[in-house]
Fold:
Amino acid sequence: MNNVVADRVEGDLGKWLKREQRFQKIFPRPLASNRSFLREKLKYYRTLDSRYGNMANQEERTTLRLVREDRKAIERQLYPNAFVRLAYRAYSRIQNEAEKRQDKRRNEANLEGLRATALRLGFPEDALIKGQSEGRSENLGQDIPFSYQIAANERMAFHWDLTGEDGSYMLNGYRATLSKEGDPDRSHNFDFNGTDGITGAQAYNLLSGRSVEIGKEGNRHWIKLDLNDKNRDGNFNVRRFYPKYGFDLEKCLERLPIKQLKDPDCTKELLLDLKNGQRRQVTFLSGDIQKRISVEANPHFRSLNFYNGNGKKISYSKALRSARTKKTSHQNNLRSKANGPIKNGLRI
Structure:
């Protein structure tokens, strides 16, 4: 997933060489004596110097020295008069400064866009970018995974898929890995293909075996990773459940005696959390008795999953029965107290 070139100057020179070879096939005259072509080559060399001169690593500095030597040779060929050559170099310095300012503005805009993407995905901005205050694209943290602790025995790690050209980078997606004590790691590539802009929290829920609703209006649907089936790229196969499949989360909730559904704001929050793949704790009502139950969406079976306080999966009837049992137990306690012995005129 990593497309970083160790020597970016060499990479850009390779692009120019391909361009030069293409031109040589088209035009019969030798390019080495074509003044228009040589001016373009000098301009390209100046751009490389402006782009990487102040941020080059050791390997790139060596390549830049060779570029400057070739640049001087071309200048002598184009401008044999020393005074004219000096005037050209003065002009070049002015152009270099202008290009540096332009590159800085472009890089700052690029970094701002990446920060916005990181925040939209639910990550802190420095999870994607290191040294962002310098506004330099080489500080992008694509080689270093960002990770955080989910629970005492769970941890998530993310490797960014960044592609870049001319100092600008684009986040194409990331590889998320869930590490859980006692279980093998689960990893999956989440690519941004227009519909699957999966957030970090959604990635965790998917790797935990839960379902998430994604997409925009007209293309909203649920997805679930098949954790028992991987493709040749090492990713889990994705199951998709579109509206025609028949799962309606709101209708499933309406049939349940959930306290939170009596409040519109709580209902909205509950729906959003379940659509993001979270397992939410809710309150089942049975008369005046309340019982805490955890629920999660299960579009595959057009239903919900239920869990007790210990995280053990239970059936809906058992979840409802546990609330009724608690109510019966409470009523029996009240009757027992009502029928107890009398002391000092009071029933105890």
Summary: The chain has eight helices and 13 strands.
